[in-house]
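INTERNAL AUDIT FORM
Audit reference: QA-55
Scope: verify that the stored structure record matches its stored sequence.
Auditor: D.O.
Record contents follow.
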Amino acid sequence: MKNQLYFALLCLGFVSCSDAPKSENESGEKTNYDVVFREKLAGKYEKWETADNSFKYFYTYTDRGRGPEVTEEIKLNSDNYIISESITGVNYLKDSISENFSGVDRTASWKNPMSEDKADFNGKALYFRHDGSPAVYEIIGQLLTASENSKVALYPEGEVELVDQYSITLSDSTSLNLLMIKGLEMIPRYLWMKNNEMVASISGNLHIVREDFKAFRKELQSLQGTYEDEYLFKIAKELSNKIDKVIIKNVNVFTPEGTIVNSQDVFIEGKKIKSIKPSKGKVLNGTAQVIDGTGKTLLPGMFDMHTHNTKFRGLLHLAGGITSVRDMANNKQLKQLSAQFDNNEIIGPNIVIFCGIIDGSGPFANQRNVVDNLEEGLAEIQSYKDLDYDQIKLYSSIRPEWVKPLAAKAHELNMRVSGHIPAYMTATQAIEQGYNEIQHMNMLFLNFMSDTIDTRTPLRFTMVANHGADVDLKSKEYLDFVSLLKSKDIVIDPTISLFENMFISKKGVPSPTYSKIMKRLPLIEQRAFYSGGLPKEGDKAALFKESYMNMLNALNDMYQKGISIVPGTDGLPGFLYHRELELYESAGIPAAEVLKMATINSAKITGTSDYLGSIEVGKNADLILIDGNPVENISDVRRVEWTIKGGTIFYADELYNKMGIKHFK
């Protein structure tokens, strides 16, 4: 009865998984790990043995009111493969998760967000859960190091491979093994092991480190970074094809006016466009490499106007036809990464705008460049200016009374100001106090809901999901707001595809945001797109969809009224950008105008139009070849054959192959 009461309270959200009553067989000694997110202790990971070959795990961390909290139980067979697994709790967006797997008597059965099914099972393949603790990574590491061919079969499909294993000695003379694993994700998974147990998993901003090694976390990160860099340097050398003279023959060219001119010969020398002439069937320059563009479209390299760059994401940008980006918040070492992109040490786009982030302190702070008072905020702006940053992004925990002086300081230094709308403030107030730009469509919709909403929390999503349908696009309040946007020349960075995934997707069904490309991706990415976005049950699904459709209506209305709109992702590079452009067209914006936003208009807004953004003689030859005509079918932007950036041609199929992704062909 006591346990029944506990689980009832858990389902209602009145207790945490960490408050679970302990059963009698949970007497094993716990192994504890710190979970560090963006350099702050954000949670914990625990594991303990409950019986022979049976283990229990608890995993949680917090990210601005979001973050998973899961309890997991696993039983292994004598070969170390999972034969029983159950997972309960909530995922990153706080939606409930429940997953089960059982493999006995040569049959496996499972229930997860993708399916409920059964099939033959020989106990020699590893079931990989959808959403859970890091336990499975440790098991994979153990299996791979014991494997004769450095491979492990996954169940019901897939395979992981141990690409490399490095023996490393730490500063205190402790010896560890660093495993480099491929097959799960688009980037390699690195795992630190000692005596066949996981010591640490360091992946981007998320670090999971065993307590007895927490003093070495930064050292582990630095050492791993060196091996990651060597891997990426090698890829850059393999996949970069320097060009001297190139003629793209008989290709259809997207013009600065947003039209297509058919059958052109485009001559490139080094990094520049030298001539554009009607094709006459003859190649006049016998020393040039000739590329047949018949039936294909040449576009300027596109601009993703909302990115957060890492050294691993650059390949995806170029494979997707994106040659230039704005970085909308990062660490202060971003210039180093940008130089590596520019020099092609690591494959990546031009970072044409550097935007420094500032947030106020508090329980929901961004955890990067957080200030406790206005004076620290003003100093941060000067620090970014000294690093030659172009823009300042204010985040949700900034105090409303700081906005005006912070914006004034940035403008004094000739920097633009953009961001989230701080908690307990409206978009109108932020604009009147100095914002030049607003990130995310939900921040615009919150303008019509109150200045009492704590937008530091997930309320910034759920309020819009629940009430966005009520925003009247013909009301005086809305029309006055759009007039303010127009009069102040405010740029809107809607990231509309993020909200399609949050508001429209349903648990257990492929997200419409990614459904076109899911089968091309590695295992973990595929499974992530079944999670369902924001929790929604019953009538909520229809309501959330109506709110999202009103977002699309507002996007089109703002375009019609002349508001500057820039396409950006704030998510999966390339693929999410393509979806962003598709959604603009589905909202009612003509495809040619969408492509101008992605190229010509973005170049103007970033101040790079003298040399980027259009196909014209004398401009940089940052170009992409599309198998199709995206003016007629916007979805053809997904059909990138190659990208030229900085005098180097990159073939999309080769870039995708390195990340375990299938090309569109």
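Auditor finding: record pair retrieved intact. Residues 1-25 have pLDDT under 50 and may be disordered.
Action required: none
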